Amino acid sequence: MFAVIKTGGKQYSVSADDVITVMSLPGEPGEAVAFEEILMLSGEGGATVGAPFVDGARVSGEIVEQKRGPKVIAFKKRRRQNSKRKRGHRQDLTVVRITAVAAP
Questions:
Q1: For residue 59, what are the β-bridge partners?
Q2: Contact call for residues 98 and 17 (beta carbons, < 8 A)
Q3: What is the chain's mean pLDDT, rounded?
Q4: How many Å apart are CA 40 and CA 12, to the nearest integer?
Q5: Which of 9, 75, 76, 103 has the highest CB neighbour number within 10 Å of its CB?
Q6: For residue 50, is pLDDT > 90?
Q7: What one-character DSSP code corresponds to residue 70?
Q8: 61: Cβ–Cβ under 8 A, 6 or more apart, which residues?
């Protein structure tokens, strides 16, 4: 059984025991987290597509770690103007292990 969940403005296809990296979620490592926005659910009985979400479906997981992504450099240079700007950014991420996918 697998599900398509929506979190952090992105969609992820998950099943039990998957490890995914999502945008930052509140919580400490070891805490449980539940995803309520299930877009699609597929199992032995076929696929169920929500409009927009599947009612009663639930995906639960456990936070493995809080980390930061790789550094992204934004460099802007205006030629012949003696003007340049260098900015760096690291996104906060959460690593989640999916523990269960429950149908309604």
A1: 35, 101
A2: yes
A3: 94
A4: 10
A5: 103
A6: no
A7: -
A8: 32, 33, 34, 35, 96, 97, 98, 99
Taken as a whole, the chain contains a residue count of 104
Token couple for 33: 């987290």
Peptide bond before 70: cis, by omega within 30 degrees of 0? no
> pLDDT tens-digit profile of 72-98?
999 999 999 999 999 999 999 999 999
Residue type, 19: V
Q: Is 22 helix (H, G, I), strand (E, B) or coil?
A: strand
Cα–Cα dist 98/82, whole Å: 51
Q: Are 34 and 60 in contact (CB under 8 A)?
A: yes
Measured CA to CA in angstroms, residue 85 lies from 73, 74, 79, 82 at distances of: 10, 8, 12, 10
Residue type, 86: K
